[in-house]
Fold each of these.
Amino acid sequence: MRTRNYNDFMREFTTVADAMNRVLDTRSYDYMRNGGNAGNGEAQQRVARLPLDAYATEDAFVLTTHLPGVNPEAVEITFEGEELTIRGSFQPQPENVEFLKRELYHGGFERRLTFNVPVNADAIEATYEMGVLTLRVPKAEAIKPKQIKVQAR
């Protein structure tokens, strides 16, 4: 029988939380589920739910998302309370182009993540390389595993 660890629990919790967010959040436009186009210009007025990958290391949570063509200085990242928010916009295509196929999303995007464990908000790092945004959110000392040394007497 396989032993379940903290990462298994977090992966399952994230999956359930994402499903609940999709059910309860009627305002956002999920371009992963809708093929990038809401039709009739509707995508321009809605905010896309930015897809991302998340994993945990011993010291931090690491989040990555693809933002090709987005100026990294135009991406707004905030951490307030227990919530991390990533906001920005994919630039619109020229209006005078007649598309044969239009699947890429253009317009605003946003992603909110709630951390239900203590993190070190002052040490969050964001890097942008070749269209990939990576956030490193360090865990607070209180939740890091502690090594206890045995003392012989």
Note: The beta strands are 28-29, 47-49, 53-56, 60-66, 76-80, 83-90, 107-114, 125-129, 132-138.
Amino acid sequence: MIVISAKILDDIVAHAREEQPNEACGLLAGVESTVGQSYRLTNVDGSPEHFSLDIREQFAAVKEMRAAGLEMLAVYHSHPATPARMSAEDLRLAFTPGIAYVIVSLADPDQPVVKSFRILDGSPIEEQVSIQELEQ
């Protein structure tokens, strides 16, 4: 299970909408399974069908995470027109062991769908996304 605050979830959905028609991408960091920070990164491919993280931005985000005592929990990206499932390309490019892969689908723009996957023996296993309410 991955735990994401409503505020961070809203931010990654907003990022996905802002980058349309291209895929948005970024990193999620936190402690154990609870996301405490999101990092919007540039999709250097500028494509609606795939993404590549900007390596300089990725390095800076990981450096900032470590300084804050956080660990990288997930890579997120959007699917502007397709369901929130791992494509064959997503699986092929899932290089980082032990993290989640969060996908935001905007196939129905009025009802974004967010799913999280772990890779086990080369196959995607969907995990629960627990959304925390905003703190007052």
Note: The helical segments are 6-19, 55-67, 88-92.
